[in-house]
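Customer escalation, tier 2.

The customer says the design service returned an amino acid string that "doesn't look like it belongs to this structure." They asked us to rerun it and document both sides in this ticket. The original structure tokens are below, unchanged.
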């Protein structure tokens, strides 16, 4: 199975840490959202979409890109967020499924967040993602991909 991860990780490159760990272990190609349009998605069996969370959803460009995933593709979701409160994959999952993609699962963890008022207090989720958080992403992928 050939996999690729498209990522958008602009705040502190928190999500990129998860992406890099998976790519290293599984020798996967990774492409930032800026270059995603040039990727021929039909070459891949599994597509990972990875981003930080803004205003309760995946970053806007990633939410929009999800609408372009071809029908029938298997997709997994990765994210980091300042305050895990659930529901962050809801919107992107709806977009993917309504276009006929299959969402294999999602993994999210905390990521250092200095947005808005949090900046004044030195940010929240400092030190995240931790090694443990990153390992969690690798274990998640191993599970959904059958350990390939
Ligand atoms: C504009 C903006 C909005 C954010 N909104 C949320 C939010 O709604 N919920 C949350 O838990 N974190 C929120 N965050 C925190 C980020 O999701 C978090 O820091 C994430 O780890 C950033 O990932 P990145 O470094 O890969 O871009 C927000 C950050 C920014 C910059």
């Amino acid at each position: 199975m050939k996999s690729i991860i498209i990522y958008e990780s602009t705040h502190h490159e928190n999500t990129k840490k998860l992406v890099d760990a998976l790519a290293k272990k599984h020798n996967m190609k990774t492409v930032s959202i800026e270059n995603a349009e040039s990727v021929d998605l039909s070459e891949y069996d599994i597509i990972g979409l990875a981003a930080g969370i803004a205003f309760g959803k995946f970053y806007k460009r990633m939410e929009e890109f999800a609408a372009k995933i071809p029908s029938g593709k298997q997709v997994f979701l990765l994210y980091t967020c300042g305050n895990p409160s659930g529901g962050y994959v809801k919107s992107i999952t709806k977009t993917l499924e309504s276009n006929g993609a299959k969402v294999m699962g999602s993994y999210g963890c905390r990521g250092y967040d200095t947005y808005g008022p949090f900046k004044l207090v030195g940010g929240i989720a400092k030190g995240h993602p931790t090694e443990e958080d990153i390992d969690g992403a690798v274990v998640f992928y191993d599970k959904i991909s059958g350990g390939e």
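Tier 2 assessment: The sequence is consistent with the input. The chain has one domain: 3-144. The longest strand covers residues 46-54. Sent an explanation to the customer and offered a walkthrough call.
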